[in-house]
Amino acid sequence: MTYVDTSNISAEVFVTVLLFLIVIAPLFSLAILRFFQGKKKAGLLLIVAGVAAYLVFQVVMKLFFD
């Protein structure tokens, strides 16, 4: 069995990932909920917002932590 070594993760990276997960995960969850409610336009808008937040997250990680 192998373990993941998290000792090299800095506090800044941890907080950045945590903040973006607090934004990205609910957007996708709400999108799925809207699809089940039959609100396709609202669901697609939330998915687009989630993808946009993910792209912003990728840019932030590249600029500050690469």
Describe the structure.
This protein is mainly alpha-helical. The chain is 79% helix and 0% strand. The chain has two helices and no strands. It has helices at 11-36, 40-65.
Summarize this structure as a short list of keywords or feature phrases:
0% strand; mainly alpha; 66 residues; transmembrane
pLDDT < 50 runs, ≥5 residues: none
Task: Determine the fraction of residues in helical runs and give it as a percent range.
Answer: over 70%
DSSP strand tally: 0
Describe the largest sheet: none
End-to-end separation: 30 Å
| Helix/strand structural class | mainly alpha
Architecture blueprint of SSEs:
Elements: H1 11-36, H2 40-65
What's the short version?
The chain is built from two helices and no strands. The protein is mainly α.
